[in-house]
Amino acid sequence: MAGWHEPTAADWTKLTRYLAKWSDVFVTKYRPLRHKVYAHRDRLEQAELESLFSATSYRELEKLIASMCALYEALWGLYHNGRKPVLRPRRHSLVEMIERPGAAKPCRVEGEMAVLEAKSVLAEYKLGRTARPSNKRNT
User: Fold this and answer.
1) Which three-class secondary structure string do you get for 60-121?
2) Would the pTM of this model clear 0.85, i.e. be above it?
């Protein structure tokens, strides 16, 4: 208990500003896509659809996901281990995650695991194996 950190107002201010920055990016660019395209499948004209997607970029989305992982880890460490909440830079390049998946690491962050799982699923799809065999026995 001697090394635990009690969060200060400055800690919360830093975390809040960090979250607000990325929250604004999500709300203005990605939430409309989530609501209109992926979650509810609104009927959109091609021009409106292109407008929604043109406001986004892969690089920005990669950074958004990595930033939420960094925030999660900082809060997790504070809550579970009493560590000072430090926002550590994360890998955010999908290409880098795929090319150097950190096989030696026993534990990967959620974002990296999702990238590697998506790569695996797409590889299976390319081979024509879109459905996994059932484990159920016919009785």
Assistant:
1) HHHHHHHHHHHHHHHHHHHHHHCCCCCCCCCCCCHHHHHHCCCCCCCCCCHHHHHHHHHHHH
2) no
